[in-house]
Amino acid sequence: MAFGPHLLLATLEGLVMAAVLALMALGLSLVFGVMRVVNVAHGEFFMLGAVLAWYFSTLVTGHPAIGFLLALVLSPLVVGAIAFAAERLVLRRIHYNPEATIVATIGLLYVLQQAALTFYGPDANPVVPPFNYRVLLPWFGYSGYKLAVIVASILLITLTWLVLTRTKIGLVMRATQYDRETAQAFGIPVDRVYAGVFALGAMLAAVAAVLIVPIQQAHYLMGTDPLLLSFIVVIIGGLGSLRGTVVAALLIGVSDGVISVFFSPTLAKMLATLLVAMVLVFRPQGLFGTAAR
Amino acid sequence: MSGHLSARDDMRVWGLHFGLIALLFAAQYVLPDYHNGVIARVMVLALFAMGYNVLFGYTGLLSLGHSMFFAAGLYGAGLPIYHFGVHPLPAFAIGIGCGTALALLVGALALRTTGVAFMIVTLMFAQVAYLMSLWLGEWTRGDEGLTLSRDERIIEIGPMFLDMTNRDTRYVIAWALFSIGLGITLLIARSRFGRVLVAIRENEERARMLGFDTFANKLASVTISGAIAATAGAAYVLLFGYMGSTFASIQYSILPLLWVLLGGAATTLGPFFGTLLMFYLAELSNDALNAWLPDARLNQIGIVGVALILLVLFFPKGLFGSIRERWLKWLP
Q: Taking the domains of chain B in order of start, what are their residue ranges?
């Protein structure tokens, strides 16, 4: 294949990656923005979403789209419920102390990994895509499902943005993010908002996982790489900024796709991680964020 | 806390620490073969935890990147021996040097950030180090790792002959390094420098206002902490003869955190007892649970996870932190 089409293919792969990454990082960013805590177990909610998607899709027979749609609805709900329970049982009791939360979510990470290993096993399993349609480009055919993932991600992000900016729930969340004490004084149940936001963040990761699982198989250790990538995206985008997160996901996803097509993926990851660490060191507010209040 | 102790408390502190060191030395003559090996390993890993404690416990900085300092010591000592046949003694020094230099560099960069960002930056630098150990697979053999042969683990200077594949030699070297590490952390905890670190942990603004150069003190803390972790890594490869990428992975940054939390952060004895307890706890519960649920594929990660959550929820001060709070106020 010539260089041009090769680059196009790499860009498309990168866009699929960016679409999933944006959803997942949005969840992480929301949790950090509103609750001011880092959820180290975010990658495991992604993993759970994928593993549950496989489980739900095996429950039904018939057209693969039925199983996929079932997974798309149920998997985020179950993951959201697990996150909600974890928030109530653990995070609330340590009063969202930043360091204790990091330690607790590291613990949660391992517990969820162990649970997946116990009940799901060490093997990787694929989910059949809901449809097999190849879009014929002049140089090569491209999976229609992958393009659908990009569209679905755009729709979901728009929906999240609408909820955040146009609804009462979004207003309550933004008020809590802006000033917790004042929000509480105005009668906002900050405590319940936290639980809801934590569950919502986990659900976004789970949706991202359901979308990716027909492309990448479900495995109990699949959460680590997306976690680091979402950290990178959220940092580059500026913590708690929706627009920054989406732009950064595009930047990281596409460049990761392009770099891994042309260079060794390990080297690409190494350089990207180092670069981001340097961004965080020299521009802690992120590339698009403004200085902290 | 460790400020002005009466002469009696002073005696107690030294007595307690020397007592532990003497007890561990004597233990080698009574411990059965298996537990002898376990305690030697625990002492080396406790050294790692003590290094972590200097930064996390006394200075209040949560790093998730200490695996890179341990691995720098491990590879810094092991690779020159394996590839260039360097004598183990200078190789040990090279390992410590690599880790210390890395800690100084990482500290100088990462300390520009604070709080959560410090944790993420150290995590990322460690991830770069881990990926590098995989990328340089031609030299390190990545996850598979490298094993040092017996000939490469013998130190012979004049009449001194140390064979580190020998069980008793290994125990004594581990014990000696552990004792030095314990002595150093005790000295730090009771020194003016140590009290400045605690002041920074409690309120950095106030410490700065009192005229302390908080950045320089924190950098010294990161460097000392990394140097101790690297010493543990260099000792590990010499004593146990194996180096692999696993030691550079995130898991080996989380384990010292767990050990220190269990034993009690900012206590001198906590890291050792945390490491010791966690080792036997993980092993016993692993055996018991696997006998009870043979098909559950239980491994250490589940136990580590549950331990972390329970510690944070119900036992945040750890073993020696709680003992100090309740009974022995003079514990350093």
A: 7-250
Q: Is residue A201 part of a domain?
A: yes
Q: Could you tell me the residue range of the domain that residue A31 belongs to?
A: 18-222
Residue A170 token pair: 């979004």
Fold of domain B7-250: ABC transporter involved in vitamin B12 uptake, BtuC (1.10.3470)
User: Average pLDDT, stretch B103-122?
Assistant: 91
Side chain identity, residue B260: V
- Does residue A125 form part of some domain? yes
Give the Cα separation of B63 and A237 in Å (integer). Answer: 23
What mean pLDDT comes out for the span B310-315?
91
pLDDT of residue A47: 96
Mean pLDDT over all residues of chain A? 88
Q: Select from B116, B297, B308 the Cβ nearest to the Cβ of A107.
A: B308
Q: Which residues contact B193 (CB under 8 A, 6 or more apart)?
A: B217, B220
Tally the domains of chain A. 1
B8 shares contact with chain A (CB less than 8 Å): no
How far is it, in rounded angstroms, from Cα A79 to Cα B135? 35
Please indicate whether, in this complex, the C-beta atoms of A110 and B305 are within 8 angstroms of each other. Answer: yes
The mean pLDDT value for A190-200 works out to: 92
Do B112 and A281 lie within an 8 Å CB cutoff? Answer: yes
Residues of A within 8 A of B296 (CB-CB) are 118
Residue A289 pLDDT: 59
To the nearest whole Å, the CA of A135 is away from the closest chain B CA by: 36
